[in-house]
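Thread: Modeling a multi-component assembly for a lab meeting

Hi all, long-time lurker, first post. My supervisor asked me to bring a structural picture of a complex we are working on to next week's group meeting, and I have zero experience with this. I have the sequence lines for every component (678 residues in total). Could someone generate the structure of the whole assembly? Inputs are pasted exactly as I received them:
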Amino acid sequence: MGTISLEHSNRLYWLGRYTERFFTTLKALGDLYDKMLDTQHGYTDYLGCFGLADTYADNAAFLRSFLFDDTNPNSAAYSLERAYDNGIVLREEISTTSLSFLQMAKDTLEKAQNSTNIRLSLLPLEDILYAFWGCINEHIYDDEIRNIIYIGKTVERLDLYMRMKYPYLIVEKEFIRLLKNLNRVPRSTPFRYQTKPLSELVEILGTEADYDRESKRAISSLSRLFEAGEVSV
Amino acid sequence: MTALHQEQFTKAVGNAGEINDLLRRYGVKFGIYKNGEFKEQFFPFDPIPRVIPSQNFAQIEKGLIQRVDALNAFLYDIYHDKKIVRDGIVPEDFIYISKGYLAQCEGVTPKNKIYSHISGIDLVQAKDGEWYILEDNLRIPSGASYPLIARELTRIAAPQAFEENAVVDNRGYAQLLKETMEYANCGGIRAILTPGRFNAAYFEHSYLAEHTDSVLVQNDELFVEDNILYHRTYSGGKTRIGVLYRRIADEYLDPLTFLPESLIGIPNLMEAYRSGNVGIINAPGNGVADDKGIYYFVPKMIRYYLGEEPILKNAPTYLPFYEEDMKYVMDKLEQLVIKDVAEAGGYGVVFGSELSKERLEEFRAEIIAQPRRFIAQEVIDFLDLPIIDNGDTVMRKADLRAFVLSGETTRVWASGLTRFSRNPDSFVVNSSQGGGFKDTWVLSR
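Re: Modeling a multi-component assembly
Sure thing. I ran the full set together rather than chain by chain. Output:
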């Protein structure tokens, strides 16, 4: 096809972001679930990473909201819905098969709500998401399309890792991955990023000490990397 | 088809649950507005196919090709010389007051003189086996994607059904469509224009775009410059569009030509079309030929343009516009089905037998006051088809939408959308009114 509109380029980017947000949230909640087996309100540090107050009665209420409540913008369900919303208008670009994995994820998450063992019933979601990414690789012929999705995915992952205070070595790996993805987009039709926030990121994420000290500034720079004005015709 | 044969096909296809699970997985949905709210629903699929033996289909195929060729000739004539009106075959009353007639299309000749590239012709089979045409849809007939994907998934869920029965493969529809689009292409890429995700048929738009290697576009991605239609790319470039399979109604296509308040159209699209720089599928203005009032005249068109006798019959139809027909309609109103020519999607269809005495009289007065607005048809006692309902096999009313594609030649897709009513007392099969669908198997022997 070889022609991508501004609307679709944004959709591709946000498909990558929301799918990754769903995946990383799910994994983080899985780890928290384990921690909460031993600790009441064992989720408060997690809420703190996102600047959220603890308004939940107990572990179960927190989990229910962060997994299944699609009106909670920080929940897995919310991210999955947004990923699907973006994916559904990209069928001819990402393929019906890729999209089917998002539908399967929605169905699996919905079924998990009524399960007596939530963590076990959520496990297939990880497989489904890996299959989704495999499908994106397999079915998208146009590198440009694939790379825009991957840029969204790595931006989101980096953002969440930094918010959740992941160790420097892991963050650095993701940052390098982002730089590689940015370089992969053909020069003739770049998915344009702002250069200033990128140089800030390069500076901050250059050393562990800078990352530890200035991770908030790095998160802010990352959020400005693809401001609407920069992705323009 | 004997009951024994039907049972064999029923058994062969197996259970509805597995196929519906797959349809769900692949997002086979349609949108519906209820109380002003948009809802996306899975389209209920029944696994027992409608089965059409090869010989029977050959006859239907011939009849459909004949009908669509005549309708295309009619459209060319109406927007050019109007010989059929001058020769008194179709009264001009039925042309110029039709909502589908667009004066803006006068004298415009689409590439290769094809107006209806994709025609959805609705048929029913009567209990005596005879097929009747119920309706021609020449604007934006939808529904082909559903049996197309259902077949793909049924072959996965019930492979034995296809080993045991010689079913013509229907999965070439996308290729047929692609060829049809290419034949109308005036130089550029193929694009499918959708009003957006909240359109009832959005699944179909995106599925067909994917399978015809077309770009799925919305109006704000398109613009016309020097009478050429372009797709605006995100990096500031533009790509020429040679053929636009639009899935929005004529009146919304171009706000500078039709409804100025249209927010989903493309300014100056009609200029690009008139200049021969872009093909539009189907051509604007086709509504004049699929008006329910014009339906009555299609057999006459076949005789007039092709010099042939119609192969497929219309359902017996009366036009209250004619004095003799008005008298018949008044006498038999409680036995007829009355259709408002301006309505579609199963709306505006009234069965005389279902009206109270009081409503019948009110309706009689409406017909007398606006005879051109209604047609009346005999209620065809059409063949019920088996469907699975909560594990039981029950019989329901069903129709068939056949798809005829006009390109270098006119071809009938060896399949079609069989829609059925889920309500045992209803003849209305439209998905918007709760109907489901079946695959249509054409046998190769």
